[in-house]
């Protein structure tokens, strides 16, 4: 049994050697500074910010459950869940523009 934390998005363990980061459930620019954060794989975090704007995150996607329910993100998390826990690759395309 592993003591590694579990990514609440793709539900894979996050080993110490994996790239990971903290995701603010409400973006800092939208009032989330000091608010709840979740540890996620870096690849999952990149996909969130490539898919949704800060405003969309603050308004509609402020929980892991809501993020997993987004159609594009759900498809991505299902795909990445089949990869090893330490898997990482560049996220295609650029980040969305901040509004």
Layout of secondary structure:
Blueprint: E1 20-24, E2 37-41, H1 42-51, H2 54-60, H3 64-69, H4 71-80
Antiparallel strand pairs: 1-2
Helix pairs in contact: 1-4
Question: What does it look like?
Answer:
It comes from Pseudooceanicola atlanticus. 33% of the residues lie in helices and 10% in strands. With 99 residues, it is an alpha+beta fold. It has a two-stranded antiparallel ribbon. Helix 1 runs antiparallel to helix 4.
Labels describing this entry:
two-stranded antiparallel sheet, alpha+beta, 4 helices, 10% strand, globular, 99 residues
Count of helical stretches? 4
Q: Globular, elongated, flat, extended or rod-shaped: what is the shape? A: globular
Average pLDDT, rounded to a whole number, is: 91
The portion of residues assigned to helices is 25-40%
Protein name: HNH endonuclease
């Amino acid at each position: 049994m592993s003591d590694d934390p579990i990514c609440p998005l793709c539900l894979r363990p996050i080993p110490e050697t994996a790239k990971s980061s903290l995701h603010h459930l409400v973006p800092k620019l939208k009032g989330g500074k000091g608010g709840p954060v979740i540890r996620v794989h870096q690849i999952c975090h990149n996909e969130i910010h490539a898919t949704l704007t800060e405003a969309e995150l603050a308004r509609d996607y402020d929980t892991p459950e809501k993020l997993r329910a987004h159609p594009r993100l759900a498809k991505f998390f299902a795909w990445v869940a089949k990869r090893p826990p330490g898997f990482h690759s560049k996220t295609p395309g650029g980040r969305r523009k901040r509004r």
